[in-house]
Structures are given as C-alpha cells and as structure tokens.
Write a structure and sequence with these properties.
heterodimer; A: mainly alpha; 3 helical TM bundles of succinate and fumarate reductases; 85% helix; elongated; B: mainly alpha
C-alpha cells in the first residue's frame, strides 16, 4: 500500500487520542449515574444500601475494574498530553511516552486488581 | 501597474471565540491535573482500604462525611469532574454533531444535566443527615447510638 497523505497520522498518538475520548465518555456517563445513586443517601439509607449492594456483585465488580482501568489510562494519558503541549522534549518523545502511560497502567492495575477482585469474589 | 494586495480586515468575532476556547483548553488541563489527586485518593480510600467496594454502605458514607475534609473533598471532586467531563463532552458534540437542531439540543441537554447534578450533589453533601430518625439503627453509623 502506498502511504498517501491523510488527516489521520496513525500510530500511537492517534490511538491514544481514540482511547482518551472513549474512556472520557465512559467515565462521564458513570459520573452521572454515580451522583444519582449517591444522592440516595439523602433520601433513604435503606434504598441507598439496596442500590449499592448491586455494586458488590461480581458483575459490577468487573465493571468497576473496567472503570478504574479507564480512569488510570485517561489520567496518565492526560498528563502525557499536558507534557507534549508544554515541553519540546516530550513532543519529540510522545510515542515513547504513550508506552510509559501503558506501563504505569499495567503497574497500577497489578496493584489494584488482586485486592479489588478478592474483595468482590472473596465472599466475606 | 503593480498589483496591490487586498487589505486584510480582522474578523471581529474571532477573538472572543478564540479566548473562550483558550480558557476552555487551559481549564481542561488544570482541572485534569487537580482531578488526578482528587480521584485517586477517592478510589484508594473507597476501593483499596478495608474491605474495598464491599464496605460501602450508608454507614461508610456517613462516617466519611462526618469529617468536613471529606465533604469538601467530594464537593471539589463533584464540581471539577462535572466541569471537566462536561467540557470534554462539549468538544465531542462540536466534533460530531451536525445539522440545524441537534448540536443545540445536545449542548443544552449537557448544560442542564451538569448544572442539575452539580446542584443536587452539593445539596446532598452539605445537607447530609448521618443519623436520620425512623431508620433501622443497625444500618446507621455507630456514633448515632451516642446521640
């Protein structure tokens, strides 16, 4: 395939842009739901406990893991965006920085997942 | 005869639009950096300490909001997250929504949702009643028994 000039530059930068938007939208809609469910504490403690009990189920436990994953990647890719905008060195090395973001993601998920999954699946 | 270049006239509305976009751009970065501190503390305290997500119930929330620090922490998180998320969604609507009515419908839905949830959340945090009457005492925080 000949490489034609296109609006899409591809590679890490473009994919991180896609990931940033997708995770941002997902986090935003969770935020809306999360404000509404937490508001139940003001209306009825019993209803709040009933609703929040669903957050303790395995299915929601996995969704929460996905939510935390989305927040980690969005947060550290956000830092990459700020660095790339402000610092020429980071602009030159933005591809490597994308992989550093994924490295931080892996390390943080490795710290979070065992603890979270044992809380969700561990019975107790 | 030498050709003369046409005089360039500035477009009046440009500057205002540019400034709004510039502030939105700055806000997104500054709020994002503050949100990193706010959100990861929130996630750590709620999901990593104690029994993690399994510990969250009315008593847990009441225990946290008994401290003004956590009330203000969650208030800051509420407002900045809605503003940061709302600003991001605004950019996405600008990018993908076309036509005569849809962009306006979406922009106004977004503004109304964000403002309504900011007001709701603020009222919930600051009018919170940790020991409401007429509730089974076993689901209330332990300090309610001393009242």
């Amino acid at each position: 395939m000949p490489s034609l000039p296109t609006l899409y530059r591809g590679r890490e930068g473009m994919w991180m842009w896609v990931v940033h938007r997708a995770t941002g939208v997902a986090i935003f809609f969770f935020l809306l739901v999360h404000i509404l469910d937490t508001s139940l504490v003001r209306i009825s403690p019993e209803d709040y406990n009933d609703v929040i009990a669903s957050y303790h189920t395995p299915l929601y436990g996995i969704v929460e893991a996905g939510l935390v994953a989305a927040i980690i990647i969005h947060a550290f890719n956000g830092v990459r965006i700020v660095l790339v905008d402000r610092w020429t060195w980071a602009l030159r090395h933005q591809r490597m920085l994308s992989w550093i973001v994924w490295g931080i993601f892996v390390v943080m998920m490795a710290g979070f997942l065992p603890r979270h999954l044992s809380n969700v699946f561990g019975g107790a | 005869m030498a050709a003369t270049a046409p005089a360039l006239t500035p477009i009046p509305s440009r500057r205002t639009v540019g400034n709004v976009q510039r502030w939105a751009w700055m806000f997104q970065r500054i709020s994002g950096l503050i949100l990193i501190v706010l959100i990861f503390t929130h996630l750590f305290v709620n999901l990593m300490t104690g029994d993690g997500v399994s510990q969250i119930d009315f008593g847990f929330v009441a225990g946290k909001w008994a401290a003004p620090l956590w009330q203000w922490w969650d208030f800051a998180l509420l407002i900045l997250a809605l503003a940061h998320g709302g600003n991001g969604m605004r950019m996405i609507i600008d990018d993908y929504s076309h036509g005569r009515y849809m962009p306006n419908i979406l922009h106004w839905s977004l503004r109304i949702s964000c403002v309504a949830l900011a007001i709701l959340g603020t009222l919930v945090i600051f009018t919170f009643e940790p020991c409401p009457t007429g509730v089974d005492p076993s689901i209330l925080p332990s300090f309610c028994a001393d009242l």
